[in-house]
Amino acid sequence: MRLSLLGALGAGLLAAAQSTFKPARPPSIPLAVKSPYLSTWFAVGSQGGNGGYLPGQWPSFYTGQTIGWTGLIRVDGNTFTWMGAPRDVEAASQVAFEYTSTKSIFTIEVDDKVSVKVTFLSPLTPEDFKRQSLVSSYLNVEVSSLDGADHNVQLYTDISAEWVSGDNNAVAQWDFGEVDGISYHKVWKQNQQLFSEVNDRAEWGNIYYATDADGLTYQSGSDVDVRGAFTSNGKLTNTKDTNFRIIQDNWPVFGYAVDLGTVGSSVKETLFTIGLYQDQAIQFLGANGQTILPSLWASYFSDELAALSFFYQDYSESNSISSALDSKIASDSKNVAGDNYAVLTSLAARQAFGAVQLVGTQDKHYLFLKEISSNGNTQTIDVIYPATPIFYYTNPELVKLLMDPHFENQESGHYPNKWAIHDLGTHYPNATGHADGNDEHMPIEECGNNLIMLLAYAQRSGNTDYLKQHYAILKQWADFLVQDSLYPANQLSTDDFAGHLENQTNLALKGMIGIEAMSQIAKLVGQDDDAKNFTDIAHDYITQWQTLGFNAAEGHASLTYNNASTHGLLYNLYNDKLLKTDLVPQAVYDVQSDFYRSVMETYGVPLDTRNRWYTKSDWEVFCAAVADTETRDLLLGAIVKWVNDTPIGTPFTDLYQTNDATYPPGLEFKARPVMGGMFALLIL
Ligand SMILES: *[C@@H]1O[C@H](CO)[C@@H](O)[C@H](O)[C@H]1NC(C)=O
Ligand SMILES: *[C@@H]1O[C@H](CO)[C@@H](O)[C@H](O)[C@H]1NC(C)=O
Ligand SMILES: *[C@@H]1O[C@H](CO)[C@@H](O)[C@H](O)[C@H]1NC(C)=O
Ligand SMILES: *[C@@H]1O[C@H](CO)[C@@H](O)[C@H](O)[C@H]1NC(C)=O
């Protein structure tokens, strides 16, 4: 609360009222977050944010780049802003903010006369691929009288051409039209560059901003003209600007005005949708060589207007599916670990799903993932792995759809190494593989992750055919773990920013649990000799590991073998509980639980002794999930405190300093899908 007030003051925005924030004050608020390329947020933390007040600051892409999205309202002839920071318009007063897993809801009071409730819904329908495939989001605005009197009200909103490129010198083009009674502004980058990015933004596809409001007028033109027309007249000119130009040349905007007429105590509601339509989504080197994969929505709808019309008219159904998921996540989280835990799961949901997109056809589809911000890699295994808890929880088939491209690529001989590949492409949306074998090698990490994810998927889906189908390559990876995981060679773990190390205790543990997972996979497909062999090896290794990696006198696992002065989060223990492999004795869990309490800082437990302060919240939650109740609650409480206090203004980071809640210097991880790992407790 203190920080949010300071943030508001810092931005020179001392609103008359102060807003509440429930269930927490997040670092950044998701507005329209549906895919790696539709990812519009609202910065809160003081580093770039204004404390979370929708009137008075522009929304931004997850990178921090401004995205023009404006809301104005005219009450009895006086105009106020409810979203964004247009020049010369007074900001209305935000009094409340609340988020759920799928919604961000702002309550704003205008001139003490009317109340505006603004709901951003980015639907999550993980079991319904037709709906989930649409890269679109809702903005619903409800207006009612605040003081009991009737008021004359007009509502306004626009988007700028900043939605269509990461380069404000790019030329935008636009059009206006109608489908099934729904009006739309269509905006695109004139020079379409398929599969290209500038500043992480897609340089191809069409943005549609749509509404079917009664009493509607529209206009495209410069920000000054279009907003000025509304402020002066309460309506727009129903005209199109045809001077297609660069995004920042007299900023073309695409506006709607809605005459709500007399507004009394009953609520008047207006719905808008914003969506990105790209027919072609991914380049993929798979079983059929290099192919182009369409967006999955394209196989459910004849064209983008049909998709738009469906999405617009689906609000009530989509809202009810999303609301049911909101309630389930909140109540399951509270039941498992209390109110604090729901703060984290609800904040992570849209972010995790916002890094993936359904692509392909109804017959053969995939879920592609962008690593986001740490780099732009496609389908990174050690980013998929920490994210999977949210996918097991909402629909385990999503894990199969993330793994399918990996099997296709590697089983078709497109990767020369005997261990598992790190990612399927250096930059999303290209999943063109690493035929030269020169990916970022994390051999034990990725072999272990794959075996663990496959068994966890089979346990939750019952799909043992999938294990049979991929048995040969799974065994190849398990053989590698047998060779390398007792004494891990000098290599990277997923925490690559910390560098290479030999004999990493936590990495060895992942390898050993991976071998035990292979034993169970073998058992499930009737390969009993393999099952016996792999479990014998895993048990032999884990016995040795307890001497090599554990220091009984110091009372903790070491970061590297036989080095009592080192320690770290032993987060790979989580896998033993996830898979119910029961490989590691309970004493190890107990010792680590006690130890974490002894090294707890203000915002959590540091990752390992290579760095004094930084940690990873996904791994802290993995540790919390298998710790005793006291340590679990301390860890979750520290992350929630971080959420409320951090000065960071970009989306939920997994990497931060445990002393002052900032980013580690030069390591700004933001909006990464790994926050799906917040769901780790819900799947045990
Ligand atoms: C993807 O590959 C194409 C070439 O096929 C290239 O033009 C494009 O820049 C690549 N995209 C990214 C984001 O690197
Ligand atoms: C057990 O597995 C290891 C590693 O894959 C292999 O080298 C060994 O031959 C196997 N032993 C038996 C008896 O199958
Ligand atoms: C790794 O551990 C083994 C067994 O303790 C040891 O022989 C080897 O020297 C260790 N390597 C390093 C770099 O500490
Ligand atoms: C133990 O680890 C520390 C920190 O990595 C290192 O400086 C030291 O040399 C290690 N000691 C041994 C005996 O390997």
Automatic annotation (TrEMBL):
Gene3D superfamilies per the UniProt record, alphabetical: 1.50.10.10
Q: Which domain of life is it from?
A: Eukaryota
Q: Name one GO molecular function term.
A: catalytic activity
Instruction: Say if the entry is tagged with keyword RNA-binding.
Output: no
Q: Cite a single GO BP annotation.
A: carbohydrate metabolic process
InterPro entries in the record: 6-hairpin_glycosidase_sf, 6hp_glycosidase-like_sf, Glutaminase_GtaA, GtaA_central, GtaA_N
Instruction: Outline the extent of the Glutaminase A N-terminal domain.
Output: 102-332
Signal sequence residues: 1-19
Q: Print the keywords alphabetically.
A: Signal
Residue span(s) of domain Glutaminase A central: 338-682
Protein name per the record = Glutaminase GtaA
Its ancestry begins with: Eukaryota, Fungi, Dikarya, Ascomycota, Pezizomycotina
